[in-house]
Amino acid sequence: MSDVLLSVENFSGAFRAADGRLTPVLHDVNFALRTGAITAVVGETGSGKSLTALSILGIQPATFVRTSGRILFEGRDLLTLGATALRAIRGRRISMVFQDARAAMNPVFTVGQQLAEVFRLQHGGSRDAAMAKAIDALRRVSIPEPERRARQYPHEFSGGMAQRAMIAMAALICRPTLLILDEPTTGLDVTIQSEIMELIVELGRSAGLTACLITHDLGVVAETCDAVVVMNAGRVVETGTAEAIFTAPQHAYTRKLLAASLLVPA
Amino acid sequence: MRASDYVVLRTQALRKTYRVAGGRNLVAVDGVDIALHAGETLAIVGESGSGKSTVARCVLRLVEPTGGDIEVNGRSIMQLGSVSLASLYREVQMVFQDPTASLNPRMTVRQVLHEPLRLHLAMERSQREKRALALVDMVGLPAAHLDRYPHELSGGQRQRVGIARAIAAEPNVVILDEPTSSLDVSVRGQILDLLLRLQAELKLAYLFISHDLQVVRHVADRVAVMYLGGIVETGPAEAVFARPTHPYTRALLSAAPVAQWGVKRVRLRLIGEISSPIDPPDACRLVGRCPLEQPSCSRKRPPLLAVDAEHSAACPVVLGHEREAIPGAEALSRRSGGEGGATGARL
Q1: ipTM score here?
Q2: Ranges for the ABC transporter domain (chain B) (predicted)?
């Protein structure tokens, strides 16, 4: 089970101010994503969890610069790849689900058009065939009346339905090896949240996906993830299996975060 | 237990509707009765579209109610004009969800705190300054922060300022609208502890609006669960968490994830998404989504029925059956044991 799909190694980085000064924000970040597992990267505001995830896809803010380290995906350092090489990986090999699905979609195209367009970019084929794939993908994420829904615009979707469509695009249309989910259920109601997480786990299992869940919510992690990386203030403070993190946390920060999540004294 | 029998805030048959396209009515709040007693915390729990925030806003007349009555300290506030409304805000204050959006970015903490003291208590400058110093101290901020602007404070510190502003005019009711939703979990606990301490010191009654069940369980004396504009279950917090009765309450509680290893939830799952609030039929609010639905559920909207002395739920189907036979009840009563729940639920 030591089959590692992606590893972040000694990754450090900083924000560059207009005058060229660097403010370090990531400090020697190390973790690995095991093939077929769901790994959570957990942390609070400013922990660097999202910045690390965005760096994997090369979509970090322009002012962020790497100062050391590498991100290895199938033996290649993603941080050294040029725009063309990265584009071949984005979507096709590694895809991403964002927090606010309605904001992440294009408001002037129907949901079906957007899924179909991504399908054609990745796999080619006719418009009609792509739309059929889009409708099929919406059906597989349990969106009722997928034919009708495919003709609707993102604003006509509820937050939960839009996130389902986003997952359909990122996991089923793209068929990546690695799926990164950045706070996919933040802002959704808890009854919807639990359904979305179940969908993610189910797709992970059935499609053999490796997933990386970026989240601040340890409750979600306890039920769905195999491994956990805990980050605080730009550093990885603890990594381990989900069971070990929840039953025998080693680092003081992990213990504090767990106690705070349960509202019990640390 | 209830701190007092004196009712500081009461709503009766509170209703708020909005006119939408085609002359139809969107019913946001539909016949809500609540009674908040002096010194207690009543939590209104619900998801998006439940109407919980609209209730909070109606109580301050930030949203004009369409019908029903609201009494604050025994006085109906429905007919108050703009001048008398100012006097209402001495008695009822609000802490908002987003402390960044609810503080004026161009005002220092001092200016934010002086304003209610000047408007509501007509204090002189020197008195105001003394009181502002006392207020920042009460909410755990150093005096030096009086000269800071909101952008120079962290999210938790900003919420402390929001709380200081709310208690400045010495109200006896504070509406807390998701006061910790925009905060990190480590800060959430500190703000809740602060709110509980202030409540004890100042004998405040809290109307606590939240979707966070963990938080509600931590702070509430009583709970009202709202769904689609109405209260579907209400009672003492421990009773509602230990014996959730309405299918919606069970679905909600059994969907909330717990940050503990091996907690196995027995889910009660609802079908689809929340129904349309536009011209809703005279039927149970959960019709079309409820796994326990009976033909009678569509005929008439069920009233709140007694579960125990102070615990009631609007579900004749569940209350007519042996409750333990229905999914969602067992896991929850197990989870309710002990602090943080889940005792004996480890696998």
Answers
A1: 0.87
A2: 9-253
